[in-house]
Write a structure and sequence with these properties.
Layout lengths: L2 E3 L4 E4 L2 E5 L2 H8 L7 E4 L10 H9 L11 H14 L3 E5 L2 H12 L5 E6 L3 H4 L4 H6 L2 E5 L9 H6 L11 E8 L12 H13 L3 E5 L3 H8 L3 H5 L4 E5 L10 E5 L1 H13 L8 H14 L3 H17 L5 E2 L9 E6 L6 H9 L3 H7 L3 E4 L1 E2 L4 E5 L6 H22 L2
Parallel strand pairs: 4-14, 6-7, 6-8, 8-9, 9-10
Antiparallel strand pairs: 1-2, 2-3, 5-11, 10-11, 12-13, 13-16, 15-16
Helix pairs in contact: 2-12, 3-12, 4-11, 13-16
Length: about 400
């Protein structure tokens, strides 16, 4: 087995390239742009750093052994979340991935079961197939529409026949809200109502991957509990828009959480004096959650600037921007998302002269033609202004190149 950073700066694992640093990233490491470069990191809301209040909470929160249920800060966080979500109980877990894994396993208790998920869902695409490996649960996908929903007639068509010995039984349906790959879309309440009815009719449980549920609540101006009344369980991440360093929470019935506690321990997620991380999560709920609307406003601001200066080389769906995720689509065959992101991360001599400063924007190529920009707590209005300034310059440059 060979893990290494090769000469070409690719992280290689068992002969497979996991991640390739582009030239600009390498150059930045070798030759930092300049000492007064403004870097705006829009790759994800997971890059957020803890606030001073969170660091203070790490130091001052009372702790105990949480596997013995003796950490008062964890207990406080769990009770607070259960109330906020309108559920019986909640459980602090290390990550969103583990939260989803535990939740699906807690719903699919016996073997030979299947869960329905969206074709673009995080559970299906980005959780390393953990449910197959550790949970023994087969995932079956229905086509995700651009708004993060799916067609319930299509879902109905893939429900298994419980009397057919050749088929696993469908036990669960999963939703994602907001929907990451669909650009931070918020699922409409009408869809949630239909899913709840569908689940009842087919005797299924319903789990919501609500990694960014609070962004959905802010967008809808509703309490999280209003949204969650339609599902049996939820997972939510503190480590994204809420700016915490680590941690997620899952919530559901007492019975669900009691099973989840066993599963968390089995998966190695039982934590001890973890009030040091539950404390910041409480701070995130109290202080960052009410400010998420700013991330949404700023996302819209950047999207509007891109739309108005697109020079027809890129496209954004302005009306489809609900929360803090912005997808930028490349419309010309000679540009792809990686090129766009590389260019945003680079500063040319000519650009330095015209903009009179070095601005480095980090985005994520999400697919060949789509780049993702995510707003979050560490991006203030000054950084938004710099982002817009840089984007205008780069879009114009791309248009000039395109017209050559
Ligand atoms: C929608 C969604 N669900 C789950 C996760 C997993 O969270 P974690 O990275 O904490 O495992 C993510 C992470 O980006 C996500 O975007």
């Amino acid at each position: 087995m060979k893990n290494c950073l090769t000469a070409s700066r690719s992280l290689v694992f068992r002969g497979r390239i996991l991640f390739t640093m582009n030239r600009n990233m390498i150059e930045r490491q070798l030759h930092p742009l300049s000492t007064n470069t403004s870097t705006v990191d829009l790759r994800s809301d997971t890059v957020t750093t803890p606030t001073q209040e969170m660091y203070d909470a790490m130091i001052s929160s009372p702790v105990g052994d949480d596997v013995f249920k003796e950490d008062p800060t964890v207990t406080k966080l769990q009770e607070k979340c259960a109330k906020l979500f309108g559920k019986d109980a909640a459980l602090f877990v290390p990550s969103g991935t583990m939260g989803n894994l535990i939740s699906v396993m807690a719903h699919c208790q016996s073997r030979l079961l299947e869960a329905i998920v969206g074709s673009q869902s995080h559970i299906l695409l980005y959780e390393v197939g953990g449910l197959a490996h550790f949970g023994g649960v087969q995932l079956r996908s229905v086509h995700n529409k651009a708004d993060g929903t799916f067609d319930l007639d299509e879902a109905s068509g893939i429900i298994r026949n419980k009397d057919d010995i050749h088929q696993p039984s469908t036990a669960l349906i999963c939703l994602e809200n907001t929907h990451n790959k669909c650009g931070g879309k918020v699922l409409p309440i009408s869809f949630l109502e239909q899913v709840q009815e569908f689940a009842k009719k087919h005797d299924l449980k319903c789990h919501m991957d609500g990694a960014r549920l609070l962004n959905a609540a802010i967008y809808m101006d509703r309490d999280p509990a209003d949204i969650l009344q339609y599902v049996d369980s939820v997972s939510l991440c503190f480590s994204k828009g809420l700016s915490c360093p680590v941690g997620s929470i899952i919530a559901g019935t007492h019975d669900f959480i009691s099973r989840a506690r066993w599963l968390r321990k089995a998966l190695g997620g039982g934590m001890r004096q973890i009030g040091v991380l539950a404390g910041p999560a409480i701070v995130g709920l109290d202080t960052i959650y009410p400010k998420l609307y700013l991330d949404h406003q700023r996302t819209k601001q950047i999207a509007t600037a891109i739309h108005e200066n697109s020079c027809e080389v890129v496209e954004v769906d302005l009306d489809g921007i609900h929360t803090n995720i912005l997808m930028v689509h490349m419309t010309k065959s000679n540009f792809d998302a990686a090129m766009f992101c590389n260019r945003l991360a680079k500063v040319t001599d000519e650009e330095r002269q015209i903009l009179e400063e070095d601005i480095c924007i980090l985005g994520l190529p999400f697919s060949n033609k789509t780049a993702r920009l995510v707003l979050h707590h560490n991006i203030d209005q000054n950084k938004v202004d710099k982002t817009i300034k840089k984007l205008k310059y780069v879009l114009k440059e791309m248009a000039d190149k395109n017209n050559l």
